[in-house]
Every structure is written in C-alpha cells, then in structure tokens.
Predict the structure.
Amino acid sequence: MKTKIASLITLFLITISVNAQIDRSKMPEPGPDPVVKLGKPTTFTLKNGLQVILVENNKLPRASASLNIDNKPYFEGEIAGVSGMMGSLLGRGTSNITKDEFNEKVDFLGANVSFYSSGAFASSLKKYFPEILGLMADGVKNSKFTKEEFDKEVQITLDGIKSSEKSVTAAARRVEDVLTYGKNHPFGEFTSKESVERITLQDVKNNYNTYYRPNNAYLVIEGDIDVKATKKLVKSLFSNWEKGSIPEYTMPATTNPTTAEINFINMDNAVQSEIAIINNIDLTLGDKDYYAALMANNILGGGGTARLFMNLREDKGYTYGSYSSLRQSRHAGTFRATASVRNMVTDSSVVELQKEINKIRYKKVSAEELENSKEEYIGGFVMDVQKPRTVANFALNIARYNLPKDFYANYIKNIKAVTLDDVQNAAIKYFRGDKARIVITGKGIEVLKNLEKTDYAIKYFDKYGNATEKPEMTMPIPDGMTAETVVNKYLQAIGGKDKVMAVKTTMMVANATVQGTPVVMTMKAAAPNKTSQIVSVMGNTMSKSVFNGENGYQEARGQKMNLPAEQVAKAKDGNALFKDLAYTAGKLLRIEPLEGKNAIVLQYKDTEVFYDMASGLKVKEIENTKTPDGKAVKTPTVFSDYKAVKGVLFPHGIGVKMGPISLDLKVTDLKVNEGVSDADFE
C-alpha cells in the first residue's frame, strides 16, 4: 500500500514539474501537415468502353457502386425534360424482373438501388453486394419503359410543375439559368408543362437508346471488396452492355453583359427578394489558379464567417445568410453571390453585395483571412479523405478531368502555396461584379422604386425568362372598399367621428427653416371654412392669408390682394378643419407602396390622397394644378408624427414640397376649441 502511495506522489510531482515548464501564454506550434495517402485504385476498361475503378476499403462490411455516364450536356429543345423522365423510369421493371419483384428484393436485402438520367447507384452489405450489383446492371441494360409507368411519370412531373408555379425560389433559379446561359443552352433550358405534354414514350426510349450507353461511362466500386472477384463480377454483368454512337453537339458560348445590369423578375406573391449576382467564368478543376479561386471564394462568401455573411447578416441584419459560390465546369462555369432579403432592403443589399465583391478584387485580403481559409479547407479535406467514397470520387475526378495521378496527394501543398497576390488575381479574374447580371426576383411594387435610384440599367423578365415591360406599380383594390369606407376608417383612426365633429376651431404654430432662415407659421381655422395663415420671420410678419367664409385676401410686403374668384369658390367648398369629410365623394384609384407600407390612393377633384392601409391615417396628399402656361404642377404634402389633442390625432410633422423648395414644418403648439376668435378672420 505504501508503495502505491509513493508511486502516486511521485507521478503527481512529475506532472507538476512538467506543467510548470509549459508556457500557456503562447499558442502551441502547429504540427506538420498530414501526409495524404489515398491508395492506388484498380482500373480497367471493358471492350464496350466502360471504364471501371475499384477502391478496396475493408473498414466496414459494405460496398457500393456508382455509375457515371459522362456525356457532354446536350440541348433537348421542344421536349425539354425527356432525359429526366427517362432517368425516373429506369429500373421500373426489366425484361427479367417486374417492378414490384425488383423493389421487394432490394428492400428485403436492406439495400439501396437508384437510377437517374446520367447513371445509377447501388449499396448494400458485403454479402449481398453481388446480387445488388446484378440488379443494378439489369436495370441499366434491360429496363422496360411501359405506357402505364410513362403516363404515371408524366402526371407526377406535371403535378410538380404546377405545385411550384407560385414558388418565388423556383422562378428565381429558373430565370437565373435562362439569363446566365441562354434559352438555347443545355444549362439554360427548363422543363415546362408544354414540353412535358409533347414528350412521347418513344421519345423516352430514343433518349435511353441514344445516350444511356457505356462509351463515356465510369463504374466506380468501393468498399469491402475482393478486387479480383469484383473485376470478374463486373465483366460478367456489364460486358454485354452494348455501346452506341452518341451524337456530336456543339455547346453555345456563354457571355457576360458589357456592364453590370439588373434583371428583374416580378412576383406579386414575393415576401422577400431573391438576389443573385452572376457572371460566367472559365474555370476547370486542376487549372493553375484553381486553388487561389477556392480561397478567394471561401473568404468572400464560403460560410458563416465569410465577408458576405458577416456584412449582410451579422452587421446589417438584411438576411438569414449570404453566400458565394464558384462552379467549375468543363463546359460553362459561373460565379454567384446570393442572398434572400427583406423587400425594404433589396436595393441596399445589392449595394453591399457589390461592395464586398469589389473590395476583394481591388484590395488584398489579410494574411489572417487567407491562413484561416487554408486551414478550413485543409481540415475539411483531411476529414473527407478518411471516407472511402471520397477516395473513389477522387479517382473518378482524376479520370474524368485527366488530372495528374498525384493531384490529390499534392492538394494540401497546393493550397498552402496560395499567396495574397494569387487570391487577388483570382478575384479580379473570376468575380466580375462590373460585368455581372444582378438577377432579382421579388415584388416590384415594393422594391423597384428604390432599385431605380441605383446606377444600374434595369431589364424586366417574366418568370420564364421572357423579356417583358416594367410591371404595373399598383395593386388591385379589395372588393367592397370604397372612398367612404376609407374616409370613415381615417376618422375612426384619429379619434372617431363624434370627436372630430366636436372640433370647432384649431390654432397651430409650426416652425420651419427656409434656405437657412427660421420661419414661424401660425394657422387658425374655424368651422366650416374660415382660415388664417401668418408667416413670420424673427417676429416680423412676412405674409398673411385670410378667408372669412365669404371672401378673403393675401398680404405680403405691404401689398394686399383679394383672393381671385377661383380660390374663393374652392375655399367655400372645402372644410377648413377636416378636408377629408368631403373626400367620401371621391374615387379610389389604386394601392401602392409608400415608405415600405401600402397606401390606398383616393382622388377628390384635383387632389390625390394617400391613406395607410394598416393604420388608416392620412400620410400624403398631392395637389395637381396648372401654371398660367398650362404646365402641370404637383405639390405633395406629407403628414407624420400624429399626436392626440383633446382626443383627436393631428399630424405634428408636415412636409410640403413646392418646386425646388422643401418645407418641413414641426408643430410646436396646437390648441383645439381655444385661442381663435372672429377677429382672426378679418
């Protein structure tokens, strides 16, 4: 026992001694980069052209097979969607087994077998793998395309199209592709109701017989396999898969606009805007600047700590997330920066997205950002390498892209070698915010007014990518809504009609500044139509306007002039305290957005009146008049800051714009039924 205690004490003292020698104020030095050992896959090619890659990994008693038909994308035209339909019908019964028997076998073995237009996939436990691979091979070679299954798939496809008809996101992605690639491009065409209805069963069979061939195909098998036995199995199952003559196709070139432009798609049901800043690029896996492009994109918008996310979400709160992506491709690559944002900040979000894109192009990233990005990529790479399927995919990429055999073995070294200059050069080359399509799908009536204030030209498209005119900037008036109901809602909002009618006089004092000069305006009114308005500067009356119910005058700079007959008639017809009482005789014109809220617009004679749809309060009036030479003039007045005086709400902020002059009145004193006498209107 004493020996054990002594040993524990010794161990304790040694631990203290060791810990005392560790300086915890310094970050530990990083260890050496991990050495990537991918192993060498077994490869061979069948006489029909099928290239086979076998990757042995005995960690788990499972195996999987992935068939990749690597045809060049082709244009389907009037029967767009035929290849997708063909892929969906694969495996629904073959010349050797019915659809139900096929599915029952797969389920019984706890396996997975699936087919698609560009290949197939199968996985199972090791002991069932030969049988499962046989089922996959049977579906690949001998699928039966029956009229019954075809009719079902047509209906499923049409139902899917119908269900997404009002989807803003679906429309956004569809039109983004149409505009980025063009409608005559394989990546730009889309499946429509019309194209599906044109597809026949024979079209599906023709597509299968033409394009679903082993000539350009790769079969990758990985897992707990015996290489020699699997090679023999593959030959027995796939050697009789007949190769075919795959048609040549020249893909149209993609182009960017000469200068950045907004492409707007109006969706009246959009509750937020889908923004995608897109430009075409020429970037392929293994290019010289591929790694630098990866780093640049990761820093800009690769995740929750990237610049776009930190700006638009963390700093501005415009969105739940903003990201960017680089799509490398042998055929047509793209750069995209995206965000789904609130309608009110659509224009601001475009500005911030472009700001970040330009910033990373014209100013080098920091050494810390680059180092963090490298470590993130390397960490993810090292984790992925542990997965057998990743190793198989690496082997497939090396074959498809004709990469050096040591491409992934040198991956970490190549990432490490990226410099700050490399990142900036890649950003300048691939992030073309100056020649991008800024594709925005949203509610035009709520966002276009602000987008029109930007420097970008705006082009309009429908939800299928067809050029169209600017959408109407109004919304339909709800059934049952009339001028009378709108005015009554306003009266109720400011206190109720009884309280409004109890107001007999008002006296209001407001301050403003005109061209730097403080101005005081005193306005008095008495029912039904008596008014007095005095404008003073530094205690001196500069102008005065009076109407006593029968006639009136204007006085300025010592000169007095009677009101013309037209103004007298208008004053007699109006209500000096609440003009809105007469507006029940007006007519409703439209509903339109105003400062982020919807307003119902009512017209009464030469005046348009805007009432907030939610609160009912009057927010704006526009008086339409004409100058002596017949020129139309609009004089808008904006009402805000409503406050209660004796139970009735009055606006305490009044903004009037008269030509180049803007008058912002702030009410400092307002009295109801006091401070006014008949003498004020003499």
